[in-house]
Design goal:
The chain is α/β, with parallel strands linked by helices and about 350 residues long. It folds into two domains: about 1-50 and about 90-270, TIM Barrel, CATH 3.20.20.70; about 280-345, Alpha-Beta Complex (Type Iii Antifreeze Protein Isoform Hplc 12), CATH 3.90.1210. Helices cover about 30% and strands about 15% of the residues. It has eleven helices and twelve strands.
Length: about 350
């Protein structure tokens, strides 16, 4: 069991649904608060912030390597420093936003991006931490987070098996065993064909820990599919209005989709159930409508059973069909009318 604030996450728990606010608040505190209210109304379990400043993320530098030049990027042409200035959540908002979330029954936590942000979040007594994909190789950061003793949720986007193992070992070395790994494809948006969700099964077995999904694909289909593979936590970027802007709005879900994700993931989790054969309890009554052997013509005592006077039909009150060939040619010990379920008591000198 992993305890995330007021939520105990066990192997049989429904997936925890986390709404990531990121920079979709567009530097408006009022909008950020409205997003939290909407996430709560949609049924999310948690909200997550990102704790950094442009200075803690990168250098204020105009060299080419500090420019985003990929044509496929939503942020092509942006300078890293200016992008992070626009996307960051002001630190003075954190306490008020956390308190607002907690007042609505939501778990509230954040992704720190450097050690100073961890130290700041510790003053706010956050219940857990998230390590972002691009920071999963920052071992000093991971070590500092592990030293808090609080649960760590870590995205594994881009990381090799060896890098994931090194991060886990770093956490364990600090005496922290509370780890949730998130399968993640670190493209924005991520192609569904790149989701590779079966990796969740391998991660659970290989790293012996809880595994969830950080989903940057469009819509909620990938997230819902992950539930069937045992994802214990699903994180999606959230926005109030996709058409109103927001740094990550192009791959975020709105309140309607969030509510669909909440209800859909719960339903899929319920459907997983347990290994069960011989039908569920609710199916037992239906067994009477299965096939069995019935007399299909009026017959007299001493007549032999054949393909004309007995048939395998519904309902299921007669002998099971598996006995059909065994009783072919056997004599009946009394007259039997059509529509009678065949039983051993009606067959002459039969070893069952």
């Amino acid at each position: 069991m992993i305890t995330l604030g007021h939520i105990n996450l066990t192997e049989n728990s429904k997936p925890l649904i986390v709404a990531e606010l990121s920079g979709n608040h567009q530097q408006s505190y009022e909008l950020a608060e409205q997003m939290i209210v909407a996430a709560a109304k949609s049924g999310a379990d948690a909200i997550k912030l990102q704790t950094y400043t442009a200075d803690t993320m990168t250098l204020d530098c105009d060299k080419s390597e500090f420019q985003i030049d990929e044509s496929s990027s939503l942020w092509q042409g942006e300078n890293l420093f200016s992008l992070y200035e626009k996307a960051s959540t002001p630190w003075q908002w954190h306490e008020r936003l956390f308190n607002k979330a907690k007042s609505l029954g939501l778990l509230a936590f954040s992704s720190p991006f450097d050690i100073s942000s961890v130290n700041f979040l510790e003053t706010l007594a956050v219940p857990c931490y998230k390590i972002a994909s691009f920071e999963n190789n920052d071992l000093p950061l991971i070590k500092r987070v592990a030293q808090t003793g609080k649960p760590i949720i870590m995205s594994t986007g881009m990381a090799s098996i060896e890098e994931i193992e090194l991060a886990i070992d770093t956490i364990h070395d600090q005496g922290n065993e509370q780890i949730i790994l998130l399968k993640c494809t670190s493209n924005y948006p991520a192609k569904i064909s790149d989701a590779n969700l079966v990796t969740i099964l391998d991660m659970k077995k290989r790293f012996n820990c809880a595994v969830g999904l950080s989903d940057h694909s469009l819509g909620i289909n990938v997230s819902l599919a992950s539930v069937a593979l045992g994802a214990c936590l699903i994180e999606k970027h959230f926005v109030l209005d996709k058409n109103a802007g927001g740094i990550d709005s192009d791959f975020s879900i709105d309140a309607v989709e969030l509510e669909q994700l909440v209800h859909g993931s719960k339903a899929i989790h319920q459907a997983l159930g347990k290994v069960k054969y011989d039908g569920s309890e609710s199916e037992q009554q239906s067994k009477k409508y299965r096939r069995s052997i019935y007399i299909s013509q009026n017959i007299n005592a001493g007549d032999k059973l054949n393909e004309s006077n007995m048939r395998i039909i519904r309902p299921g009150y007669g002998l099971a069909p598996k006995y059909y060939e065994q009783i072919l040619g056997k004599q009946v010990n009394q007259s039997i009318e059509v529509g009678t379920p065949l039983s051993w008591e009606l067959i002459m000198n039969t070893d069952k």
